[in-house]
Amino acid sequence: MSTPAPLDPAVALWSAELAERTGRPLLVLLHGYGADERDLFGLVPFLPPEFVVTAVRAPLSPPFPAPGYSWYPIEGLDGRNPSSVTDAATALIAWLDEHAPDAPTGLLGFSQGGAVALQALRLEPERFSFAVNLSGYATPGALPRDPELAQVRPPVFWGRGARDDVIPDFLVEHTTQWLPEHAELSGRVYQGLTHSVSEAELEDVRVFLQKQLETLEADDAPVGEPEQ
Fold it and tell me: Is the pTM of this model over 0.90?
């Protein structure tokens, strides 16, 4: 069994100082292949301000001359190996255990980051409140807690472009079948969009996140006294 490469806490970006994070829900941003923690952090002004947002850096470096970082290899015979996606999700969970163990947590990932977000849900179905999967996919193959995930059915938003030619068709087809069986799915296919994020998609994500905030607030509301 491989040892997942750890995430570097020194490079994580946060939307709030440590003293301002207590009692607030956390949204973790997971960038795509060849990017870094700064890539999605620019979305913070467009996201509901009630969230504390953190953007973490993937632990691997793509082969030269590709820039940035990756969560798992996509090239060679081992490209998109399910165990590599699981390793990345395991490393993410270990990082959260150390740096945000108690906050209600949602995940938002693009491409590779979306795949890691869904894999983390599968590893710990009750740990995460929801996930946003942008231009990503569900990794094929069974995991031990998949039946439990199908019972919990966390909310998942899946957005992708109709002209996205980066994610292979068989992964899109697998995700189309797998997600409704394991999550409370909402999402949209954006006409004309390639492997990227549009303003319309970002607005849909904002609405989805606002709904998740309302659910979290309702769950935290004190139970009223019984009527006399």
Answer: yes
* pLDDT attached to residue 158: 98
Looking up tokens 């940035």, which residue turns up?
Answer: 68
Q: What b/e sequence results for 98-130 when a residue is b if at least 16 CB atoms lie within 10 Å of its CB, and e otherwise?
A: ebbeebbbbbbbbbbbbbbbbbbbbbbbeebbb
Q: Please tell me the predicted confidence (pLDDT) of residue 29.
A: 98
Predicted confidence at residue 222, as pLDDT, reads 61
pLDDT in tens, 15-48: 999 999 999 999 999 999 999 999 999 999 999 9
Burial label for 18, CB within 10 Å (0-12, 13-18, 19+), is: exposed
DSSP state of 37: T
Q: Are 1 and 87 within 8 A, CB to CB? A: no
Q: Distance between CA 100 and CA 92 in Å, rounded? A: 11
What domains lie within the chain, and their CATH numbers? 9-218 (3.40.50.1820)
Burial zone of 148 (CB within 10 Å; 0-12 exposed, 13-18 middle, 19+ buried): middle
Helix (H) / strand (E) element for 151: namely: helix 146-152
The token pair at 224 is 């009223």
Report the distance separating Cα 227 and Cα 220, nearest Å.
20
pLDDT of residue 202: 97
User: What phi and psi values does residue 147 have, to the nearest 5 degrees?
Assistant: -60, -35
> Cβ of 194: how many Cβ atoms within 10 Å?
13
- Give pLDDT < 50 ranges for the chain: 1, 77, 225-228
35 and 73 in contact (C-beta within 8 Å)?
A: no
